[in-house]
Structure formats: structure tokens, C-alpha cells
Design brief:
The complex is a heterodimer of chains A (212) and B (469).
Chain A (H helix, E strand, L loop, with lengths): L5 E8 L7 H4 L19 H4 L31 E3 L12 H9 L3 E4 L4 H8 L4 E4 L2 H13 L4 E5 L4 E3 L5 E3 L4 H9 L3 H6 L2 H14 L6
Parallel strand pairs in A: 1-2, 2-3, 3-4
Antiparallel strand pairs in A: 1-5, 5-6, 6-7
Chain B lengths: L5 H7 L2 E4 L5 E4 L2 E4 L5 H9 L10 E4 L16 H17 L3 E3 L9 H7 L8 E4 L13 E4 L2 H10 L1 E4 L3 E8 L8 H12 L7 E6 L1 H4 L3 H9 L8 E3 L4 H7 L8 H11 L12 E6 L6 E3 L7 E3 L13 H14 L14 E4 L7 H11 L10 E4 L4 H9 L2 H7 L3 E2 L20 E4 L14 E4 L2 H10 L10
Parallel strand pairs in B: 3-4, 3-6, 4-5, 6-7, 9-10, 9-12, 10-11, 15-16, 15-18, 16-17, 18-19
Antiparallel strand pairs in B: 1-2, 2-8, 13-14
Helix pairs in contact in B: 2-5, 6-8, 12-15
The chains are: A alpha/beta (212), B alpha/beta (469).
The complex binds iron/sulfur cluster.
Chain lengths: 212, 469
């Protein structure tokens, strides 16, 4: 996994609540057996006017000019600004894969669905939770100022606005450490292999019927 | 000892290791696998040169991509076929306790086959790369939907990294009215607490109305815990749980059964256990539910109307409702029972078990599909459910009513196979998600119970099933 330390980047505002993972990456793209290549189909049904199919040449498809990510001023955005309960619905990890593949490294919103939130950390994407009034202000500023950028510092746990205002955010120490270092969870967990084995042996002795 | 909730008991009996910030490694007893969220995990495992930790924890099936008709022709879509064949190859190489591949007599939706085979047992931790894994919590097991990286993590380590959730008790007291089912209960709960209401919580469903539900009804309720934002739903063990599991293929037998049952009886929240939050509903107030929007919380009753955004003051919410009505092609204040449907889908891991099919058949019996309804799909949750339904003659009831009787699978719940809505088509669906495009690009989904779906099929529009029974 790519480490995440400091990101200073353009912001794209997606002003909707309850954006679900079906919207982030529609099901027809879930048929892929790979982890990469989902970026061109991120938000497919909102981004294009036709119905996308896997393996298509996306550069030839009609774009929905009204959709925020299609506006020239948001090209190259790496921070996605959004509202409540982002990433709800299906557990598909294809959603953070698509966000990451498109270029997003951080999401700023008020709340996230649990599974999606977790999946982001496994893929080097940082989901940041800020209070609703701060998010409101960011939407206003971002829409009013072309080229609006935010600086995200994971070690310091801060988001810095172009006007210099610093907003702090919370993150679990363990997740922060893993993301800062780009650590692979499995490798970390396997350091406890003896403990897992001991736990398993004791459980098998006590509840053999779970090990049939 | 301090009184504990069921969630706390399940949690503490599985903690292998804990970090200073509370992140814990919890041991996983059962790992359910399907074709969509596993290929990248198997590949990751192989690339890292790792082996699965405990193969006997794995139960696998193919369900999302499989067609529901013409099984003799195999899977025609080459991309779907590749995904299913990749699962076949991975299981062949790695092994599993059980695998129910495409066309196997016991193949079916992963959340249907686990319980019906006794592969889901009280006291277990159950994971699957699928958010509706919450279904299994009906058996008082801690069941989590996980992402693909976590699928790989569980395969490699038999553990999941997880933070302890807060606890929410949803208590439904009293008796459900005639024509009101488990689906209506859970939609009413989501209508009350919202789709983010359970974020960060494990929800325990309790109260006399939940106790009175069958295991299948409890699975329907827990299935949609995720739609309320909770990663896990739970119902405590009682005689209903134990009676359901007796003699299931993977359930313990003989002395082992007795020992297991003695333990399982302890899997309830203790008297006086503290929950972080409690929500109460009166069962008698719950009417048959119908969603009108593009999120399960956008729900009302069959006696209700499409809401009017003009009356909503919060701008973000108002815009959400406006956008939903536009997508759904609905006009504010339209009575729900005047909304006509083009298709009806009876199936999915929410409502494709035998009792669901019986409820739908009871409404369909002696009636026929309305002329304006293009298609009614009835898709059993598994091969076992299908054969049971056929033994009871339910297939004939459906066919005589002009419904289509299909092979098991996820089907039009998410339309990864050929079963889908055309753009603009409206569907009464017993599934769990009414998101934009969920049942086909541009399709419009209204979530209802099996009986209400059958009622819409014969009436041609949403209709109060209580008047048909
Ligand atoms: S039936 Fe629907 S919700 Fe259930 S596992 Fe299949 S696709 Fe997911």
C-alpha cells in the first residue's frame, strides 16, 4: 500500500448525502477479477450519458457535462468533498479502488459507512470526518474559488484551508500508523501468529463443534 | 460479573490480541466466499506466497453472476463466466469445507445457503465479502460484511482487524398486524433511525415482536441492519434458534449437539445489560411498507403518499428528496397505491426463503398478473428452497398466475446477470436496496415484502395486501 503523509491538492465538491457504493462503481464493473483499472468508471452513471460496459473505450463515451467531475476546473482533483454517510451500501472494495485509481487520495465529509471507511484505509485513501459546519464552509469556499486546494497532513491530523485556517481531525492511532507507513495489515497480523494459534487451540478444545 | 450484552459476549470471546487504541484482532470461525469479492483476495494470497490459515472455515458458492434460466447453456456472458470459473479454480486449488458451484443442487445465495446448511451457528464469528453478511446475526453470531482486502486478511490469518462497535438495542414490542411481515418491521425501523442511524453500532433486535418471528423472519430483519448503517445485526438465541438448527448438515450431532446447545443458551443479553442507545417501536403501529425514493430510509406505508419536498426546510434533505423523486419519476403527494409497476421481483437474500415464497404464493393463488405488468420474476434463494417450493406446489401457483419461476441466485437484486430493469421501468422488489441503477441502469425500485410484491403483481400497482388476503 502507498503510504499517506502530506497531500496538498485540488478539491472537487460532490454535494450529495448518502452516496452509495453502487453509484461510486456500478455492478457491471465488479465482474473484473483485477484490482486496478476502475478509475475511468468511477461514478459511471453520473459521469456519462450512456450505460457503461466493462472493456469499453471510455474516451469515446458521451459525458454528462453537468456532473462535477466533468467540469474543467476540477480536473486533477485529489480531494473529494462530500456529505453525510458517504460509501453506504454494498461492501465492494471496488469503490475505494475506483476512487484511488481515479486519483483521489483523501475524502472530506461528515460521516462514512463503516465498511467503506475501513476499505479506504486498506487502499491508501484517507477518509476525513469533519463537523457539519466546517464541511459547509468548505463547500462554500470551494464552489466560490476556482483552483481551491486543501492541505491534508496525516501526522499532524490537520486540514489547512487556503486562507490559513487549520481544522483538526480524529483518526485511530493504529490506522494512522499503518497509513503513514504504508504497512500491509497481513504482515502486521502475522507477527501475532503464535497468539492466533494458541487462541485457536483453546477454542477448538472448548468448542470443537465450530471446527468440524 | 457485570451484566453483558450479547454483542459484548460475542466480541470478548473472540479477541486474540488488542492494540493500545482498542483495535483488536478477532478470531473468525466461518468464512463465506462468493465469486465477486474473492478473486483479488485469492490472487493477493498467491502473490505473497501465503496459504489459507484454516480451510475448514471456508464455505463457498457462486451466486451474483449466475443466470436464473437456461442453466443447460451455462453462463453466456463471458466476463461473468470468467469470474465464476475463477472461483471454481481457486477453490479447487485451495480447498473448502463446502463448495456449492454453479448448477450444484445446493447452490444459492451465500446468505441463504450458510444458515440452511447449519454452516452458520450461534456464538460464531462469520465474515463474507458482502455487506449483507449481517443476515447471519439472526443466529446470535457476530457476522460482518468485509472488503476484499479483509477477505485476503481473514484467509491469511483467520483474524479480522476490528474496533469494538457501540451497541444499539431496537426493541419491537407487541403483535404484528395481519399482512405485516419481518420486511415491514425492518423497513419501519430504517424509516425511523435512517440509513446512517446504525453507523458505528451493532444492532440487537429484541422485544416480543422479534421473538415471535421465525428464523427466516429474523434473517430478513438482520439482513437489512446494514441498510440502517450497522455492520452487524443480532438476535439472541432462544428455542426457535435451536429448533431451526437441529439436524442441519453442518450442525453438531449427538453429545456435541448437547454441549453446543448448553453454550448457545447463554447467548443472550443479560438482564440489566447496558446499551449505548435504545430505540423502541410498537409492533401494532407498523403497516405494510413501500419505499418511494432511492434510499431505504425513503419509506412510507401503503396508506401513505409520495412526500412533498416543498414542506422540507433542511436544504440538503430537500434536495435529496427532489433528486429522488426526479429519478423515480414520481410526483409529490401521489397516493402510494396509485403507483403502477412494470416488473415485480420476488427474491434476494432478504426475501427468497421458503416462508417468503409461501407468503407470495398465498396472495398469487387463484389470481393472475395484471396486464400492465411486463414480468414477475420469482427467484428462490437456493436449490434447496427451490425443491422445497416445488414439493409444496408453489411453482405451479406462480406459473398459473403468470409469474416466471427461475433458478436460484442473486438475480435482479443487483442485476449482474441478465435479469434487470430497462431504463425508466418501475419495480416492486423484495430485495434490500433501491439505489439508483441497482436493478439496472435507470431502473426504479420500490422495496416491499413478498406478500406486497405479489399484491402489486396482481393489482398492477401497489395495493394493500391486507385487503387481498
Ligand atoms: S441477493 Fe442481493 S444483497 Fe443479497 S448477496 Fe445477492 S446481490 Fe447481495
Amino acid at each position: 500500500m502507498k503510504p499517506f503523509t502530506v497531500l496538498e491538492a485540488l478539491v472537487a465538491p460532490l454535494d450529495r448525502a448518502n452516496v452509495d457504493t453502487d453509484a461510486i462503481i456500478p455492478k457491471q464493473f465488479l465482474k473484473s477479477i483485477k484490482r486496478s483499472g476502475f478509475g475511468p468508471n468511477l461514478f459511471d452513471e453520473w459521469r456519462y450519458l450512456d450505460v457503461g460496459q466493462p472493456g469499453q473505450d471510455n474516451s469515446k463515451r458521451p459525458l454528462n457535462k453537468d456532473f462535477v467531475l466533468n467540469q474543467p476546473r476540477y480536473q486533477g482533483a485529489q480531494v473529494l468533498l462530500t456529505r453525510d454517510n458517504f460509501g453506504c451500501g454494498s461492501s465492494r472494495e471496488h469503490a475505494p479502488w475506483a476512487l484511488e485509481d481515479y486519483g483521489f487520495r483523501a475524502i472530506v465529509g461528515t460521516s462514512y459507512a463503516d465498511i467503506f471507511f475501513n476499505n479506504c484505509f486498506k487502499n491508501g485513501v484517507l477518509p476525513i470526518v469533519l463537523p457539519a459546519d466546517e464541511v459547509d464552509a468548505l463547500f462554500r469556499q470551494c464552489e466560490a474559488n476556482e483552483g481551491y486546494r486543501l492541505k491534508v497532513d496525516l501526522a499532524a491530523q490537520t486540514v489547512t484551508r487556503p486562507d490559513g485556517k487549520v481544522i483538526e481531525f480524529d483518526v485511530d492511532p493504529f490506522r494512522k500508523e499503518c497509513l503513514l507507513n504504508g504497512w500491509d495489515d497481513i504482515g502486521l497480523t502475522l507477527r501475532h501468529a503464535d497468539k492466533i494459534r494458541a487462541f485457536e487451540d483453546a477454542r477448538r478444545a472448548k468448542h470443537p463443534y465450530y471446527f468440524a | 460479573m457485570e451484566a453483558q450484552t450479547l454483542y459484548e459476549k460475542l466480541w470478548s470471546s473472540h479477541v486474540v490480541h488488542q492494540e493500545a487504541d482498542g483495535t483488536a484482532l478477532i478470531y473468525i470461525d466461518r468464512h463465506l466466499v462468493h465469486e465477486v469479492t474473492s478473486p483479488q483476495a485469492f490472487e493477493g494470497l498467491k502473490l505473497a506466497g501465503r496459504k489459507p490459515w484454516r480451510i475448514s472455515s471456508i464455505v463457498a458458492t457462486a451466486d451474483h453472476n449466475t443466470p436464473t434460466d437456461h442453466w443447460d447453456q451455462g453462463i453466456l456472458d463471458p466476463v461473468s463466466r470468467q469470474q465464476v470459473e475463477t472461483l471454481d479454480a481457486n477453490i479447487r486449488e485451495v480447498g473448502a469445507l463446502a463448495y456449492f458451484p454453479f448448477r450444484d443442487a445446493k447452490q444459492g445465495i451465500v446468505h441463504v445457503i450458510g444458515p440452511e446448511n447449519g454452516a452458520t451457528l450461534p456464538g460464531m464469528t462469520v465474515v463474507c465479502g458482502d455487506s449483507h453478511t449481517s443476515t447471519h446475526g439472526a443466529f446470535a453470531c457476530l457476522a460482518h460484511g468485509i472488503g476484499t482486502s479483509e477477505v485476503e486478511h481473514v484467509m491469511a490469518t483467520q483474524c479480522l482487524l476490528q474496533k469494538k462497535s457501540k451497541t444499539l438495542l431496537v426493541r419491537v414490542e407487541g403483535e404484528l398486524g395481519k399482512g405485516v411481515s419481518a420486511k415491514d418491521v425492518v423497513l419501519a425501523i430504517i424509516g425511523r433511525i435512517g440509513t446512517a442511524g446504525g453507523n458505528g453500532y451493532a444492532i440487537e433486535f429484541g422485544g416480543s415482536a422479534i421473538r415471535a418471528l421465525s428464523m427466516e423472519g429474523r434473517m430478513t430483519v438482520c439482513n437489512m441492519a446494514i441498510e440502517a448503517g450497522a455492520r452487524a445485526g443480532l438476535v439472541a438465541v432462544d428455542e426457535t434458534t435451536i429448533a431451526y438448527l437441529k439436524d442441519k448438515p453442518f450442525a453438531p450431532k449427538g453429545e456435541q449437539w448437547d454441549a453446543a446447545v448448553a453454550y448457545w443458551r447463554t447467548l443472550t443479553s443479560d438482564e440489566g445489560a447496558k446499551f449505548d442507545k435504545v430505540v423502541e417501536l410498537d409492533a401494532a403501529d407498523i403497516l405494510p411498507q413501500v419505499t418511494w425514493g432511492t434510499s431505504p430510509e425513503m419509506v412510507t406505508t401503503i396508506a401513505g403518499r409520495v412526500p412533498d419536498p416543498a414542506g422540507i426546510t433542511d436544504p440538503v434533505r430537500r434536495e435529496g428528496v427532489e433528486r429522488a423523486l426526479k429519478y423515480m419519476g414520481l410526483t409529490a403527494n401521489t397516493p402510494i397505491n396509485e403507483i403502477a409497476v412494470d416488473q415485480v421481483f420476488i427474491g434476494s437474500c432478504t426475501n427468497s426463503r421458503i416462508e417468503d415464497l409461501r407468503e407470495a404464493a398465498a396472495v398469487a393463488k387463484g389470481r393472475t398478473k395484471a396486464a400492465n405488468v411486463r414480468r414477475v420474476l420469482v427467484v428462490p434463494g437456493s436449490g434447496l428452497v427451490k425443491r422445497q417450493a416445488e414439493a409444496e406446489g408453489l411453482d405451479k401457483v406462480f406459473i398459473e398466475a403468470g409469474f416466471e419461476w427461475r433458478e436460484p441466485g442473486c438475480s435482479m437484486c443487483l442485476a449482474m446477470n441478465a435479469d434487470r430493469l430497462e431504463p425508466g421501468e418501475r419495480c416492486a422488489s423484495t430485495s434490500n436496496r433501491n439505489f439508483e441503477g441497482r436493478q439496472g441502469a435507470g431502473g426504479r425500485t420500490h422495496l416491499v415484502s413478498p406478500a406486497m410484491a405479489a399484491a402489486a403483481a396482481v393489482a398492477g400497482h401497489f395495493a394493500d395486501v391486507r385487503e387481498l388476503q
